[in-house]
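Researcher: We're teaching a course module on how sequence relates to structure. For the next exercise, students receive a sequence and then see the predicted structure as tokens, so they can try to spot secondary structure elements on their own. Here is the exercise chain.
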Amino acid sequence: MGLFRFYFHQGKLITPSVCETEAGFFVDQGPLTVTSVKDSSKVRQAIIKAFIKGNLQIPTPDGSEAAGSIILERLVIDSWSKFEKDAVLYTVHLGGRYTTFHVTGRGDDGMWTMDENSTRKFDRRASYDILADALIEDIRRQSLPKPEAVKPMLLLPKIDK
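Model: And here is the predicted structure for the students to work with:
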């Protein structure tokens, strides 16, 4: 059982340590790894390492801590909305019956949206290698240039002279 987040941003996979608080919710913490997606073996290692590490238990924040994001701090980005425009979030739930893989990507407005069609389910016994390969496959698909929207052409009738 566990929850993991992986962020694909400008050619890099960002892997935070996702910790579970005593209250039962999950937060992104350090250490954080940043891996170039050009090297799929290093990406695979980072993903599998996160799965093996699991979710550490931490005290529930009391709200007095300053709000912030370890991801934004590491990437030197000043707002989450700027980050979202160039990022895709992968959330993996290792569950008792199956493992669920959610992709939250850029919507038409440039902000994140979750497409239920991009949710994949795996047998709970699927190996970490299989899960890592699925993530890498989707990252490659996200890396492809997006086709520009083609505007319809107005066809005029042929004029006989």
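Model: If you want an answer key for the exercise: The chain has one domain: 2-60+67-125+134-143. The chain has a mean pLDDT of 83.
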